[in-house]
Design goal:
Largest sheet: none
Distance between the termini: 53 Å
Low-confidence stretches: none
Structural class: mainly alpha
Length: 120
């Protein structure tokens, strides 16, 4: 295999593994929260609506869409700028092509944030 192909594969696998670890940790946190609630109910501890609200302290979808849109767009812009730093060859073209995907995903999140009517 060529060195460039190996580097790209390692890069993609590392990004995928980071995303996988993040999702697994988030899932484990939700499972632990549910187990804690079950144990509390079994012991006879009152589970108040305030406690449930504190446990479910996720940010509003409006904030999530804006944050994801900005991060993805900036990631795409950063990869695009990086493609101009590396020597001009086929690798730079590949990075420019890869930069388009997160940039437009981020623009999509920003568009959803702008046109969606949120209830919060």
């Amino acid at each position: 295999m060529q060195t460039e192909v190996v580097i790209m594969m390692v890069l993609m696998l590392s990004v995928a593994s980071i995303i996988l670890v993040f999702l697994m940790n988030r899932y484990k946190l939700k499972v632990k929260t549910h187990e804690l609630l079950e144990k509390s109910i079994d012991k006879g501890i009152d589970v108040t609506p305030e406690l449930l609200e504190k446990l479910n302290n996720e940010k509003s979808p409006r904030f999530k869409d804006l944050r994801r849109g900005i991060i993805m767009s900036m990631l795409g812009a950063a990869v695009f700028c990086f493609s101009y730093v590396i020597p001009e060859d086929d690798t730079a073209q590949v990075f420019r092509g890869l930069a388009i995907l997160p940039f437009f995903i981020g623009l999509g999140f920003l568009l959803v944030w702008k046109i969606n009517k949120y209830e919060d």
